[in-house]
Amino acid sequence: MMILVTGGSGSGKSAFAEDQVVAFGEAERIYIATMFPFDEESRKRVQRHQNMRKGKGFETIECYTGLERVRVPEGSTVLLECMSNLVANEMFQEDGAHERTVQEIQKGVKSLREQAGNLVIVTNEIFSEAVSYEGETRTYQEYLGKINQELALLADEVVEVVYGIPIYHKKKKGGASGEESVE
Length: 183
Description:
By secondary structure, this protein is α/β, with parallel strands linked by helices. The protein has 5 helices and 7 strands, in the order E-H-E-H-E-E-H-H-E-H-E-E.
């Protein structure tokens, strides 16, 4: 099972994604952290997310670039958070994929999907703004948009979290929550 969880900043998508992982049961839980802690604000965010996961049985793997190299136990339940950070890392870090970002991330997701029993991916919805960007920011939006579209096609479920409320855009019968399909 693969679930794509999206939403705006502060929407509750992280808490929802963690709840989905827990709902899958007692399989080994792996958290793939992609936020590179480059300043005080990002370090505080990392700490907040670590506190949210406490007591939920997650093993954390830090992965800023090169997702395809990550190995997880067969049949484990994996939470990849957050695709938006991973895209930025691949684009801008020295060891990143740069212009091959989309292809490299897609290969990494497919590799994880083959290894894990369940995969939950968190991404950000950044496309509702009326502002028009140029240069690297525009390229970032294009890359993230392409990746999110591919993930949505691959996913069994696509959930947008708005103010803590999950809105299913694609749902498989008997998913983590056990609810019926509303596709």
